Amino acid sequence: MKILVAMSGGVDSSLVTHMLAEQGHELVGVRLSLWTDTTAPTLAQIQSRKCCDPQTVYRATTVAQTLGIPLHTIDLQHEFKSQVVDPFLREYRAGNTPNPCVICNRTIKFGVLLKIAAEYGCSMLATGHYARIERTQTPEGTLCRLYEAIDTNKSQSYFLYALTQDQLRQSLFPLGTMQKTDVIAQAQKRGIPLPEHYEESQDVCFYPEKEPQEFLKRHMPDAITAGPIYMNDGKRVGTHRGLPLYTTGQRKGLGIGGLKIPLHVVEKSVHDNSLIVAPSGADCKLELAASSLNWIAKPPAMNTVHHLQARISSQGRLHAGTLTHNGTWAVFRFAHPLRGIAPGQSAVFYKGQEILGGGIIQNADTQHVLD
After folding, report:
1. How remote is the C-alpha of 371 from its chain's centroid?
2. What's the DSSP call for residue 249?
3. How many C-alpha atoms does 192 have within 13 Å on its Cβ side?
4. With the C-alpha atoms ordered 320, 329, 204, 119, is the resulting torsion angle positive or negative?
5. Given 51, 101, 104, 144, which residue is catalytic?
6. Cα four-point dihedral sign 268, 86, 50, 189
7. End residue of a domain, out of 133, 165, 189
């Protein structure tokens, strides 16, 4: 089989390349050159280009040379900026907290890359993602289901819920059945060059800082304007530094003094540039509404209550509850009230280890979206 392998120069993709070569497949390696934040300080720019720094380039090149396979560098800076970064900024302007990795996976890594695979005559794309695909033959063709990786601590299924059947049919995740410790051991056994200081990749790769606030200040300064902070009872309790610098559920760094009770952000009101906070307990919700739905295999029956689990952030745990949807909107009711349900984030729905699909959390009235 001829396979396109996404080679970042990291341990995961390097081991995938070795494993597939050992199985006798014909491989074509590809590296992505993505958009760079030229407004960042010089050192920060270098740190933000972990996918393109000299060390990762060296490691990917070494693996390709060792195995005798071609390695191509594809410039996707324009596509990444227009399809990932620009929507990220637009969502922050709208008062949301977006998840760009979900968009990147669907449009860039499993969108553009699959087109490149076809151009090179490859029938499949292999990556170092930690997830599992199970394939079943049906009268209509191959049906793919997406599952958590065996190593649930490294599982990246949350970021993959928006993939289509066509994308999954052409994708391989060889590490989905491996523990991370085994991946490192197998890489060392094969003499794969490892980073001097090993780090897992960040959720977001295109800004150098750990949090997005400085990036937002550089790229949308006109939206960073101070405004009032109100308690949920309407009392003004402070002044915020700009709505994009806060997220729903945030507790630290609110800049509110003189109050002895802990407060959390419950709403960002863009129309009047106000931030709404509430004491612990008052900021919890039992339900969320999500739109832009994507179902991996067969959608759950509409207008029916389904007992499932949901994850509302990439690092969050699974929460039990019930799902109802009408094809356009989904409402998930949690077994227990939750805080930090942030509009713009993805709500991903699970049935045990299987990822059924998900959608984008909206600041919507859950009582009426299904009408």
Report:
1. 30
2. T
3. 27
4. positive
5. 104
6. positive
7. 189
41 inside domain? yes
* Structure token digits, residue 290: 């999500």
The model's pLDDT over 309-356, given as tens digits with 9 standing for 90+, comes to 999 998 889 999 999 999 999 999 999 999 889 999 999 999 999 999
Task: Give the CATH number of the domain where residue 294 resides.
Answer: 2.40.30.10
State whether the Cα torsion 245-80-32-13 is positive or negative.
positive
How many other CB atoms are there within 10 angstroms of residue 25's CB atom?
A: 18
Nearest to 35 by CA among 96, 98, 86: 86
Q: Count how many domains the chain has.
A: 3
Residue 122 bears catalytic tag: no
* Residues 64, 89 within the same domain: yes
Query: Known catalytic residue: 205?
Result: yes
Per-residue pLDDT tens over the stretch 239-296? 999 999 999 999 999 988 878 888 999 999 999 999 999 998 787 899 999 999 999 9
Cα 293 off chain centre by: 15
Cα separation of 168 and 173, whole Å?
10
User: Domain ends where: 238, 261, 279?
Assistant: 279
Provide the whole-model pTM.
Answer: 0.93
Tokens standing for residue 214: 């400085």
